[in-house]
Amino acid sequence: MKPNKDTIFFIFVTLIMGVMVWFGLRQAFDRGVVLGDNVTYPRARVLEVSYDQTAVDIHGVRRGRQDIVAQILTGPHRGKIVQAHNIIFINDIVNARPGQRLVLFFEYDATHSTYFARVHTYDRATAMYALVLLFFGLLVAVGGKAGLRSAFGLVFTFVTILCLLIPAIAMGAPPAITTLVLSLVIIVVSLIAIMGFAKKTYVAIAGTAIGIVLCCLFYLIIAYFLNVTGFSLPEMNTLVNIGFAANTRIAELLFCGILIASLGAVMDTAVSVASATAELAQGGKSDFKNLFTKSMRIARDCIGSSANTIILAFTGAYFVTLVLFRLNNFDYHMAINRVDIAIEVLRAISASAALVLCAPATAIIGSRVYCTNLNRRKLK
Prior knowledge:
Layout lengths: L4 H22 L12 E2 L2 E14 L5 E11 L8 E8 L12 E8 L6 E8 L2 H46 L4 H21 L3 H28 L9 H6 L11 H29 L6 H30 L1 H9 L4 H5 L2 H32 L10
Antiparallel strand pairs: 1-5, 2-3, 2-5, 3-4, 5-6
Helix pairs in contact: 1-2, 2-3, 3-4, 3-6, 4-6, 4-10, 6-7, 6-10, 7-10
């Protein structure tokens, strides 16, 4: 039996993802803090807490110092029994208990005769993998075939970002152009994976692409008026100090982050409007004006809910800092003019403005595609 377009598409994209994973894993970078060959971060299981001088403070947080005996589970020193120190701070609470799995900072001296070990953090990897699998299982159980297709699109998105986009930028590719091109690739692949080869898919792709272009435009305009550059990010000092600026335009990384953060919301709005327009067109003959009017009624609801989601998401990410401002009675003019506040406004407004205009753009394209008075072919 001859495979259909969907089967060929999924096989081809899976092969592409395999190539991207291979590309991402084979890249090695020597910038940053060089820890040396004697330093590793192995997983370990706590065998015994030999010393415990901890107590619960007024915040209900256990703090103090512990000495533990642990067995290393991974790396070149697998199976070795070591003693490690654990200093518990309020922002790094790791309360060791027998049987628990932790990640250690483990360092041998130059002669490999003595070592130093301390608790680095909890071993959260296993729980994270289990939660991801649980999420995908829930997605498939509730969504069925559509959920499985959505999971495939989600996997492709993360593989593209982690195994292709980030390594490419680290190798010196122009961040803004690379992110924009790969965002368009993610849009096309994800929407076809979710919705299949249908007219509403192409409408959603076009609407999302317009939204992303508008996001770029709004970013440039708002950044200019707020006098914000990529160098305003606190992480830029570290990138400059390790020489990363030598072969890439690191100021563009702020734009890249905003574009990636906006991609999901813009895509969601375009899909909602495109699907609604397709369903409205199924009801009978509709000219362009009538179909567009109906589509815009739905689009306005999508705009309101999606824009609210974006604003609240960015506000939530900055919530602790806002509480800190209030508790310290910061001067209004000092607080509102901080560069970190300006960056959050830039992120929220550029994404929301692109989303607001993406909805009517998708409605226009969908109405033009589906209107029956233009002798269009039979709806799919």
